[in-house]
Amino acid sequence: MTDLLLQPDVWLWLPLVAFAAGFIDAIAGGGGLLTVPALLTAGLPPHLALGTNKLSSTFGSSAASWTFFKKRLFDPLLWKTAALGTLFGALFGALAVDLLKAEWLEKALPLAIFGAALYTLFMPKVQEGRRHQPQGEHLPLKQGVQGFTLGTYDGVFGPGTGAFWTVSTLALYKLDILHASGVARTMNFISNATSLVTFAILGHIHWGLGLAMGAALMVGAFLGAHSAIRFGGKFIRPVFITVVLIMAAKLAWEAW
């Protein structure tokens, strides 16, 4: 591992991969499906690859979530219950990961992601800008359960968390896809940052690579978020569906 990481080209192509992952992740999620295999290819053992990826993805999700917030496409006061659920779920998942067997997740995940793509493709379209606030009965309960469930999943496994946030937000609150993307990016940042603390305590982070990739991810996420906001649902929707279908195919190939 050390010999490979000393090669200058590794420090060049890993940030390039991170830039692409940040751009895609800010729009549709799924950036980890690029960065984790890249880190493994560079020679990092799995636990170190996952921790380093959490460091870099925290940078990227922070840039994307801040961009959506600054453009008034996400109101944290309306989502505080979801944020708390996500935080506790991510902490629980990160601590419980060693107690769980991931084989069934690896086989079920492609089916779930494929279902998410189909839902997004065929769901009734909500007019952009029509709904800015989550609505419905038992809102705190829905947000808390959604946050804890997806936070736990991100802490235990990770791939596709942003996509699941987007789809579940569309289904539960009938927001347009632009506002749902703002929610997804912010909650993804919360679960990333929470899991990152656990990986840091365990010493499962290559700080040099993580920071280099994190800087590139931030730039990619900034550009991706601005592209999503500028072009709206007509841009996000096809990119989202394409990315999640590729994610499902890749994970199915690896698991089955």
Automatic annotation (TrEMBL):
Keywords: Cell membrane, Membrane, Transmembrane, Transmembrane helix, Transport. The keyword Transmembrane helix applies. It is a multi-pass membrane protein. The keyword Membrane applies. InterPro entries: TM_pro_TauE-like, TSUP. The chain crosses the membrane at residues 12-40, 77-96, 147-173, 193-223, 235-253. Pfam families: TauE. Its main location: membrane. It is found in: Cell membrane. It comes from the Bacteria. One of its GO terms (cellular component) is plasma membrane. Belongs to the 4-toluene sulfonate uptake permease (TSUP) (TC 2.A.102) family. This is Probable membrane transporter protein. It comes from Gallaecimonas xiamenensis 3-C-1.
